[in-house]
Amino acid sequence: MEAYRHKVQVYETDNMGIVHHSNYIRFMEEARVDFMERSGYGYEKMLEEGVVSPVVSVSCDYKSPAAYPDILDIYVKVQEMSPLKVTIAYRMECGGRLICTASSVHCFIDEKTKRPVKLQDRFVGLYEIFKKSLDS
Questions:
Q1: In the 8-state DSSP scheme, what is residue 64?
Q2: Has 135 been annotated as catalytic?
Q3: Residue 58, Cβ density class (10 Å: 0-12 exposed, 13-18 middle, ≥19 buried)
């Protein structure tokens, strides 16, 4: 599994010089978007097909602080799937040191009807990408 790399910026740190906890959620989104783009099904394609993917929940377990100018390696994997939701797992490391583990849960909604959709019925390409990650 290829990692997404993020260089910590000064503005992402707090007055103690470590990455502010809220920024890890942004890093997760960056890594998730990169994962999808590398898989051939980015957010632009989702929007073209009329699907939106709101975050249902997010969690982050902080293990070790990151600071400027650390380079974070963020590993993304589908952890769980149901017909209406997918759980994405994240593992952030810096030079092999575990920074945090995290997850986000997403549902999928038809942009026109504003109703939940089953990925395997409506967005087969995206479903296959998630399934492949889950099985690997």
A1: S
A2: no
A3: middle
Task: Please tell me which residue in 14, 70, 73, 135 is annotated as part of the active site.
Answer: 14
Contact 88, 106 (CB under 8 A): yes
Q: Which fold has domain 4-135?
A: Thiol Ester Dehydrase; Chain A (3.10.129)
Confidence check: pLDDT of 1 > 80: no
d(CA 109, CA 25): 21
Cis peptide before 65 (omega within 30 of 0): no
Choose the weakest-confidence range: 36-40, 43-47, 51-55, 77-81.
43-47
- Segment 31-53 mean pLDDT: 88
